[in-house]
Specification:
- This protein is α/β, with parallel strands linked by helices.
- Helices cover about 45% and strands about 20% of the residues.
- The chain has helices at about 10-20, 35-40, 60-70, 85-90, 105-125, 155-165, 175-180, 190-205, and strands at about 1-5, 25-30, 45-50, 75-80, 95-100, 130, 135, 140-145, 150, 170, 210-215, 220.
- Helix 4 (about 85-90) links the parallel strand 4 and strand 5.
- Helix 6 (about 155-165) packs across helix 8 (about 190-205).
- It is elongated.
- The chain binds calcium ion.
Length: about 220
């Protein structure tokens, strides 16, 4: 996931970039309207964070330009003023959300995640399932987490696909056995645990943020706990 930050205050831009990188996003920065537009034209970004008051031309104008190029890519506006007028102008220009300065990074991060999740839904149409920094390519049958390419066996692939299509839902071992192994008799749900552990080693091991969680007494849940 790659994010472009357009912000003319170096301290603020640096603070956002650092926070995003710590959360496994890639981030570029630009410090004025024209250079923001140039980067947006050259590269593909998954989300834009735009300050309103910028040299060159302002964030609202940049937002309009970005909207024309990429109608579906989410845009968050940063506003120091936080008046109703500013927010309305931002939405008018096509922004999806706004954050009022000064803000805490986790507030911005929460909005980034919500918007990326919404656009991930949209991207399912291009034969990929995306959750945060995990991407499952349904055509090539491979997974990617951040920059790491992950090879999966056929069963691991089906299991991960089932998890990703049911994110945020508690899945019992029987649900999983039925959908992934296509069996409804009790073939020993132990097999499910074994495969979930294989998958965990591949997609969660070494990452601070775990995606597969055990729900004691129920089964497993992918994504949000
Ligand atoms: Ca500014």
């Amino acid at each position: 996931m790659k994010i472009l930050i357009v912000e003319d205050e170096p301290k603020v831009a640096g603070f956002i970039k650092k926070g995003l990188e710590e959360n496994n996003y890639e981030a570029d920065t630009a410090s004025d309207g024209p250079s923001g537009e140039e980067l947006a034209m050259k590269q593909k970004y998954d989300l834009f964070i735009l300050d309103i008051v910028l040299p060159g031309f302002n964030g609202l104008e940049l937002c309009r330009k970005i909207r024309k190029m990429y109608p579906e890519t989410p845009v968050i506006m940063l506003t120091a003023l936080g008046t109703t007028d500013n927010k309305l102008n931002g939405f008018d220009a096509g922004a999806d959300d706004y954050v009022v300065k000064p803000f805490e990074f986790r507030e911005l991060l929460a909005r980034v995640k919500v918007l990326l999740k919404k656009s991930a839904h949209f991207q399912e149409n291009v034969n990929k399932l995306i959750f945060e920094d995990l991407e499952l390519d349904l055509d090539k049958k491979i997974a990617r987490r951040g920059n790491l390419k992950i090879e999966l066996t056929a069963k691991e692939f089906s299991l991960l696909e089932y998890f990703m299509r049911n994110r945020g839902r508690v899945l019992s071992r029987n649900d999983i056995a039925e959908k992934v192994w296509d069996t409804n008799f009790d073939f020993g749900t132990n097999v499910v645990d074994v495969y979930v552990n294989f998958l965990r080693k591949k997609i969660d091991k070494g990452f601070e943020r775990k995606l597969i969680h055990t729900k004691v007494g129920f089964g497993y849940i992918f994504g949000e706990q």
